C-alpha cells in the first residue's frame, strides 16, 4: 500500500454536511465509508489551507483508494542543484531590474552596493506588509470555500462583500442562517481572514 506523508489538514463535505476532517488518508477513508453506506449528496474534499478541491478516486476498495493517494497528496520533492564556488548558501536569482539613472546612483552609493540595498528594501517592504498579506490570502481562502460550497446560500453575496470590507460582525450575522457545518467551517477560516481589531483600551488612548 502506498501511503502519503502529507501533513496538511482536509475536510470532506457531503452537500452542506461535514463528513470528516483530518489528514487526507483519514478523510478519504471516512468518505469512502460514507459512499458505501449510500451517501448520495455530492461530496467535496477541500484542502483546509487553501480551500482548493482535492480529487480522490473512490473506485475499488478502501485499500485501493488509500493506495492511490500518494499520487495526489505526496509532498513535492525538492531537487537541489550543486552550487558553484562562491555562490551564496541562500541562493540568488538573477533578474533584470529597470530603474531611472538617479535610482541606480542612489543604490550604488549605499553600503554593499545596489544588490545589497535592493535586498534590504525588499525585506523592509515585505515585513511592513506581512500582516496585510496574511489577511488578504486568508480572505481568498475563505471566499474560495464560500464559492464552492455556499454559493447558493442566503446572503452569500452580502457576506462576500462584508468579508472583503473587513466587517466581521456583519459577516458573522449574514452567515448565521447557513447550515451548521458550513457556518462552523466559515467561522473557523474567518479567524485568519479579518484583521485584528484594536482593543477598547487601545482605542481610548
Q: What oligomeric state do these chains adopt? A: single chain
Summing up helix and strand content along with how strands pair, one would put the structural category as mainly alpha
What is the terminal-to-terminal distance?
61 Å
Shape: elongated
Note the main sheet. 3 strands, antiparallel
Mean pLDDT: 81
Helix share bin: 40-55%
Low-confidence stretches: 1-5, 73-89, 198-205
Secondary-structure element series: EEHEHHHHHHHH
Strand content: 5-15%
Number of helices: 9
Radius of gyration: 23 Å
Number of strands: 3
- Main sheet: which strands, in order across? 2-1-3
Structure report:
Helices cover 51% and strands 8% of the residues. The protein is elongated and about 70 Å long. With 205 residues, the protein is mainly α. The chain contains 9 helices and 3 strands. Strands 2-1-3 form a 3-stranded antiparallel sheet.
Topology:
Blueprint lengths: L9 E5 L2 E6 L1 H13 L6 E5 L14 H7 L1 H4 L27 H8 L4 H37 L6 H10 L2 H7 L5 H14 L6 H5 L1
Antiparallel strand pairs: 1-2, 1-3
Helix pairs in contact: 4-5, 5-6, 5-8, 6-7
Keyword list:
205 residues, mainly alpha, 3 strands, 8% strand, disordered N terminus, disordered C terminus
Amino acid at each position: 500500500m502506498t501511503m502519503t506523508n502529507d501533513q496538511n489538514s482536509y475536510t470532506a463535505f457531503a452537500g452542506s454536511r461535514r463528513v470528516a476532517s483530518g489528514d487526507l488518508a483519514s478523510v478519504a477513508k471516512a468518505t469512502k465509508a460514507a459512499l458505501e453506506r449510500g451517501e448520495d449528496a455530492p461530496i467535496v474534499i477541500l484542502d483546509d489551507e487553501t480551500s482548493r478541491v482535492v480529487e480522490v478516486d473512490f473506485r475499488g476498495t478502501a485499500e485501493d483508494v488509500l493506495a492511490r493517494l500518494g499520487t495526489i497528496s505526496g509532498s513535492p520533492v525538492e531537487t537541489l542543484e550543486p552550487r558553484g564556488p562562491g555562490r551564496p548558501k541562500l541562493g540568488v536569482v538573477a533578474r533584470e531590474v529597470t530603474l531611472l539613472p538617479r535610482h541606480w546612483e542612489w543604490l550604488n552609493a549605499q553600503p554593499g552596493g545596489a544588490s545589497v540595498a535592493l535586498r534590504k528594501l525588499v525585506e523592509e517592504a515585505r515585513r511592513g506588509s506581512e500582516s496585510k498579506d496574511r489577511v488578504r490570502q486568508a480572505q481568498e481562502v475563505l471566499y474560495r470555500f464560500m464559492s464552492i460550497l455556499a454559493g447558493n446560500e442566503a446572503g452569500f453575496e452580502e457576506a462576500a462583500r462584508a468579508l472583503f470590507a473587513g466587517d466581521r460582525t456583519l459577516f458573522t450575522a449574514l452567515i448565521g442562517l447557513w447550515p451548521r457545518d458550513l457556518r462552523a467551517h466559515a467561522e473557523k477560516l474567518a479567524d485568519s481572514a479579518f484583521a485584528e481589531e484594536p482593543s477598547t483600551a487601545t482605542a481610548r488612548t
